[in-house]
TrEMBL record, chains A, B:
GO molecular function, one term: metal ion binding
Native organism: Sphingosinicella soli
Active-site residues, record numbering mapped to chain: 53 (proton donor)
UniProt binding sites for Zn(2+): 51, 76, 86
Residues that bind NADP(+): 156, 172, 198, 202
Needed cofactors: Zn(2+)
Keywords on record: Hydrolase, Metal-binding, Multifunctional enzyme, NADP, Oxidoreductase, Riboflavin biosynthesis, Zinc
Cofactor stoichiometry and binding remark: Binds 1 zinc ion.
Name of protein: Riboflavin biosynthesis protein RibD
Length: 330, 330
């Protein structure tokens, strides 16, 4: 790996600090490097401002002059009421070169940030670490490309695809390692969605129960065409929950990453609408038999219709369980 | 790996040639080695005779004198109407040393084979490659230890644990690589079992459709408490099918390896009776939704009862699908 690739990789890893908290802005990471040493770091702050570049340049101060900047997304070219354009800030800082992992597909920037830097005499490279940057900002990119958040369905399942016992018992199918991993996924999502049935049956907390990440609980949302209001008695009622009357409401959320945690009716609705981009299956080495399934009817007529939609993007052990990450293929 | 370990490994791999065809005898592999060169090979022949040692010694002829013999299971000590005791044959052959992977737990041998060799002045080592030998003869060892065959349940499933579409369509959930692997498992089984429902719904062939292995189709069996006879119209009717009126009949089969291929009622009966030793799950990257499950009620009262019974012994990609091998833990 070249020095530039290593530094960009560090900037991208830094970008993950903001994941789940920067919406509607992308989670970006930025480094200021002088003579091969990192002199300042920045990442998009909660709520989306300051941008990573502004944070890094403020931290660098005078040290930015003549330095190189590594940033996981093209610096923005537009001034907004919430802050200046990063491209202008960079030019003003005296940075001599800017390495950009990927062009910003947001039409307000989309090449104009890089062009402004180039016009001002800043050396610009584009594309180092692009694949990793795409992965780190998958939710934001999904929103720009599809006009809706990336939607991830989480399922904790037995070998035979059951998510609970016949009577509803589901605590716990998976072990502590898998549950901790699932809680981390909550911390990385902007919004967590359940259906009315799950709310009424389980009244879940939908929070992040991981030491040090307790404040990273995503905003709760209930998808229900029939619910008038979310009861004030719900465990998550104090976290400003959203009531989504339809999948259109869900798709219209101005966030990057939505995590769907159940139940079967909600999963089926979203699968049938072909709105699931990713599935996180936590597979426990148990057979349940006649318990409740993770999904019901999803509108397939023939087996051929089921094929070709998913690929196993990742699988690994989590304690006695196994994580299977499925990504949509189209 | 030592020279002895390598040679024993070769003998064990040779033993797999007989897998599924040697019952009620174990599938054994045997090498005759002279000055580090393999001069003869043997493996238990279909029906269980000749034994691996007899085949190898006959092939070696005079070259056996002073040679070393590698065998995956202790040579038998008992004369039967079907053949002499291998321990006697080995002594008569003039072999100077015998390497045995594992002691034969069959009470008719159980140490007496090795003892007879030792008494006759043959050098005996025991235990090289024992773990691999145990795995290669798992069915036989199960029969000796539990008094019944090893029972393997095969399931071709979607991510969500469905084995067919709501209307019953199940061809194909998995792709050609997974199906070929499943056919190879048939070739390695003595008996293949389905339930009455599967017979009536699918009339499956239950044969081995792999080039060169067409003659390795296992004996078909139908588990049904209510069926009077297997209809002569069944596709496998010409392969001397067995009618099993109960799981006791199944357990009483004088074979080593039984493969259970469906359907849900049969799987549930055997899971509920805790008679499944191994599950081969072929997992396709598809979501089906409200199709038929692989198993129904298996008699669990609480989720805790489901835990601790299985461990994922192996997993690997088979084309677009994935094989999950679960082994019982107790």
């Amino acid at each position: 790996m070249s020095e530039a690739a290593r530094l960009m990789d560090a900037a991208i890893r830094l970008s993950l600090r903001g994941l789940g908290r920067t919406a509607p802005n992308p989670n970006v990471g930025c480094l200021v490097v002088r003579n091969g040493r990192i002199v300042a770091r920045g990442w998009t702050q909660p709520g989306g401002r300051p941008h990573a570049e502004m944070m890094a340049l403020e931290a660098a101060g005078a040290a930015a002059r003549g330095a190189e900047l590594y940033v996981s997304l093209e610096p923005c070219a537009h001034v907004s009421p919430r802050g200046p354009a990063c491209a202008d800030l960079i030019v003003a800082s005296g940075v001599s070169a800017v390495h950009i992992a990927m062009r910003d597909p947001d039409p307000r920037t989309d090449g104009q940030g890089a062009a402004r830097l180039g016009s001002a005499g800043v050396a610009v490279t584009l594309g180092t670490g692009e694949a990793a940057a795409r992965q780190a900002m998958a939710g934001f990119l999904s929103r720009i490309a599809l006009g809706r958040p990336r939607i991830t369905l989480k399922l904790a399942m037995s070998i035979d695809g059951r998510v609970s016992m016949p009577g509803g018992e589901s605590q716990w199918i998976t072990g502590p390692e898998a549950r901790a991993h699932a809680h981390l996924q909550r911390a990385l999502a902007d919004v967590i969605v359940i259906g009315r049935g799950t709310l009424e049956a389980d009244d879940p907390s939908l929070d992040v129960r991981l030491p040090g990440l307790e404040d990273r609980s995503p905003r709760p949302a209930v998808l229900s065409a029939t619910l008038d209001a979310i009861p004030a008695s719900a465990k998550f009622a104090d976290r400003d929950p959203l009531l989504l009357a339809s999948v259109d409401d869900l798709c219209g959320l101005a966030v990057n990453d939505v995590l769907v945690e159940g139940g079967a009716a909600t999963a089926s609705t979203l699968l049938a609408a072909d709105l699931i981009d990713r599935m996180l299956v936590y597979r426990a080495p148990v057979v349940i038999g006649d318990g409740a399934p993770g999904a019901g009817r999803i509108g397939l007529e023939r087996l051929a219709d089921a094929h070709g939609r998913w690929r196993l993007a990742e699988t690994r052990a989590l304690g006695n369980d196994r994580l299977e990450v499925y990504a949509r293929t189209r």
